[in-house]
Amino acid sequence: MKILYFDCFAGAAGDMILGALLDAGLPFDELKRALGSLAVDGWEVSVDRVLKTGVVATKFRVHDPSHDRPDVASDGRSHDRSGSHHSHEHHSHHSLAQIEAAIARSALSNAGKARAIAMFRRLAEAEAAIHGMPVDKVHLHEVGAIDSIIDIVGAVFGLEWFAADRIVASPLNVGGGTVRSAHGVFPVPAPATLRLLGNAPVYSSGIQSELLTPTGALILSEYASSFGPIPAMTVERVGYGAGDRDLSETPNVVRVLVGQAASDASAMRVVTLECEIDDMNPQIFGALMDRLYAAGALEVFYSSVQMKKNRPGTLMTIVARPDQREALTSLVFRESTTIGVRYQEVWRECLDREMVVVRTAVGAVRFKVATRNGQILNAQPEFDDLAKLAAERGIPIKDVQALAIQAWLVSRNNQ
Predict the structure, then answer these.
(1) pTM exceeds 0.85 for this model
(2) 241: part of which helix (H) or strand (E)?
C-alpha cells in the first residue's frame, strides 16, 4: 500500500504542497504541460531550489512575465500564498463558471476534473457563507486568482500522478497573530481557512504569522483520509516544499513522506459507518442487520442514544471493508429512514483464530481459540454447541459450559 504523509509542522499553502510533491519526484515538465492545458494566458510557472532555515527545499512559483514580479496571493488574497504580502491590483480574475470551463478542457482525468471543480465550489461556498452572499455574487478575487487555479489544479494532477492508496497528514499548524486580506485585518487562522478545514485537527506553535492558508486547508482536507502521527511505513522518498517567508524558529516548508505501509498481517483497514435513527419501526432494525451482514458487513451493532428534542433513538454502527462502503451506504439509505451517514477509515487489528474441538463428558464442543505470535490469549466455547448439548441432555447450558471449560483446561495442560 502506497502512502503519502504530509508533515505540516510549519503549516501549508498550495505552492508549498506543490513544491513538496515536485521535490519528491513529480516531474515538473509533466506538471507544466498539465497546467498549460488550462489555456489560461498571461502567467508562467517556475521551480528552483532555496534554503529555508538550514533545509534545502523546492520553491514552486507562479509569476506574471509582463510584470516580472514574484508570486501574488492565492485566492486573490494578499495573504494566501505561503508568506507573500503583495497587493492584488494586477491580478487576473476568473469567475467560477470560467474556472470550471478551463478545468473541463484541461488534461486532468475525468475524476480529477470533477474533484478540482468540487474543490473550487467548496472555496466559493466558504467565501459566500463568510460574507453572507449567494455563491454567484462572490467577489472574483476571492476565488478566481490565477495562482489559486494553478495551485489547486496542480495539486490534483500531482496527487493523481503519485497514485497513493492512502494520504495522511499531521495536525495542521495554523500560526498566530493577524493577517491582512482584501476585506481587512483578521485573526489567524483566517475565516476562509476555518471554513475549509473540515475535520482536520489544528494547533498553533506560537509563531506569529499565518502558516495555514485557505488553499492549503482546502487541498489537505480534500485528500487526507486521516490526520495524526506518521503511520507505520517504510519511507522511499522525502520532499520539501518551500514557502516565501523565512521563519527564525523553524524551516518554512511542508514535508511529504512517500513510502509503503509496513506489512502487518494482523492489521487491516476498515471503514466504520454510523447514523442515528429515531423515527423508524423498531421491527425493521432486525431485518436491516440481517441484510447488512448478507451484503458483507463485518460487524453491525445498535446502541441506545438520546437525540434532539429528548427523543430516544438508536445509533447504528457498521464495520466493513473500505470497498464495501458505497454498497452498504446505499443499502442503509434504501432500507432505513436515515437521511445521512457518517463514515471514516480506521485500522483494525485482530488476533489469529482457529477452531479446536474439545471432547467433554456430554459430547464434543468447538472452541474458538485466539492467538498472537503463537501465544494463546483467549478461548471460548461455541454457544450453539453448548445449547445443542444442553437440549439433548436436558441439563442447564451453564453446566455444559462449565464442563467444556474444564475439558479445555485439561487438554491444554496436557499439551
Answers:
(1) no
(2) strand 233-242
